[in-house]
Design goal:
The structure is a single chain. This protein is α+β, with helices and mostly antiparallel strands. Among the domains are: 164 residues, no CATH class; 96 residues, no CATH class. Strands 9, 10, 11, 12, 13 and 14 form a six-stranded mixed sheet that branches. A three-stranded mixed sheet has the order 1-7-8, with helices on one face. Strands 2-4-3 form a three-stranded antiparallel sheet. Helix 6 packs across helix 7.
């Protein structure tokens, strides 16, 4: 077991983790569509989210890693059959090359193990399949709602519920998400030819997840590898594989400064120290680096919680605060909203969470990042309402000017 104690070792772990995530330097995967595909194939998934106060979460995550990425590229990759949409730990885009690893979950939905509370109107589902087969791709808006009483936006019409089950069971796939509106088509019309459709065994799936985690996160532990996975057999196979790799010394244990034990490839701490990206990155709350709160705290000593699900009176940082990454540190967060009609990115509050010596440098880097970030939102102006600590306000405003 290796104890990570010194500042140099902590820095190295963080740099190696960021490098694995594609956040360590400016162009890890390449540019544009090619870079976007390489990024998701390395990360394994990119999470979707419906909140739109700024650019959608999946496009935000891509833009943090792929220079030249634009929001329409994600749907172009989807329509080209390079990626597909399904559930990882949440609704996500996933690389099409890994499609076979979605098959066990789809079987579990059909068998009533996953999503077992969903109602299944088989007659309506059959009629929907017939219409899409005859008419081509359709969205739920193309199906009539015959209900007389509706109780709210969450009360889906029967056709939408039926489409969602067909999607979860694998008969339908999402063929397009233009303007975030889903269009569905028959699975056999979407899947590329010669794609491996062999359902993986639990052992094969575990191997895939373990290898993917260490490739895209650098270090991991059982909980992070099995994050969001409910299958008892799969979790048992993940545990078995980890134990075997520990026994063979292919994996070793690292004790982080807070006492948490992570696993790493044997050569992890012998790898060269990666250079740090000098550009500050404004991350999505659903970014692959951020989404596991405990992991972020363990490695970066940064306690982050997205507060849009917290009652307004209990929020500390705002409705949709975004973590700030600078070099190998989490240096603060900003709560912001894109006022698209006014082409203005409004920063409701900026929280600079570093010592006084480092604050001017962080303020300059944040100002530069806000300029790029606002342009990505389709905005040409940045307005900052509040800065904490107040002593950073003038430095940040000067840097923006």
């Amino acid at each position: 077991m290796t104890e990570i104690k010194s500042a140099a070792d902590i820095k190295k772990v963080r740099r190696l983790v960021l490098d694995a995530q594609g956040l360590g330097h400016n162009q890890p995967f390449g540019k544009s569509h090619k870079g976007a595909l390489a990024a998701i194939e390395h990360l394994g998934y990119i999470q979707l989210d419906s909140i739109s106060v700024i650019v959608r979460a999946h496009n935000h995550t891509w833009s943090s890693r792929v220079p030249g990425f634009t929001p329409d590229m994600s749907n172009e990759l989807l329509e080209d059959g390079k990626i597909y949409e399904y559930w990882a730990h949440a609704a996500s885009y996933l690389p099409m090359k890994d499609f076979r690893y979605s098959l066990p979950d789809k079987k579990s939905v059909r068998d009533g193990v996953l999503h077992k509370r969903r109602s299944k109107d088989r007659k309506l589902m059959a009629n929907i399949l017939k219409r899409i087969e005859a008419e081509g791709p359709l969205g739920s808006k193309d199906f009539e709602d015959t209900r007389e009483n509706k109780t709210g936006w969450w009360d889906w019409k029967p056709a939408k519920k039926a489409i969602e089950v067909l999607y979860l069971e694998g008969d339908l796939m999402i063929s397009s998400r233009k303007n975030f509106q889903k269009t569905y088509d028959l699975t056999e019309r979407i899947l590329p030819k010669n794609l491996d459709l062999t359902e993986p065994t639990a052992e094969e799936w575990a191997k895939h997840l373990v290898n993917e985690q260490f490739a895209c996160h650098g270090i991991a532990h059982f909980k992070s590898i099995a994050y969001g996975r409910r299958g008892v057999q799969l979790r048992a196979e993940i545990k078995k594989r980890i134990e075997a790799q520990l026994a063979s010394n292919d994996l070793v244990e690292l004790t982080l400064p807070n006492g948490e034990i992570y696993l790493a490839p044997r050569d992890f701490m012998d790898r060269p120290l990666p250079a740090a990206d000098p550009n500050l990155k404004i991350l999505s709350p659903f970014d692959n680096l951020v989404i596991q709160r405990k992991r972020l705290t363990d490695i970066f000593a940064f306690d982050y919680l997205i507060e849009c699900y917290v009652p307004a009176a209990k929020r500390r940082y705002g409705y949709f605060s975004l973590p700030l990454l600078f070099k190998d540190q989490m240096v603060g967060r900003i709560d912001c909203k894109a006022l698209r009609a006014e082409k203005t990115l409004r920063v409701n509050a900026a929280f600079i969470e570093v010592d006084e010596k480092m604050q001017p440098q962080v303020c300059r880097a944040l100002a530069k990042a806000l300029d790029t970030f606002s342009a990505f939102q389709g905005c040409d102006k940045v307005v900052i309402e509040n800065v904490v600590p107040q002593s950073c306000a003038s430095a940040l405003q000067r840097a923006l000017a």
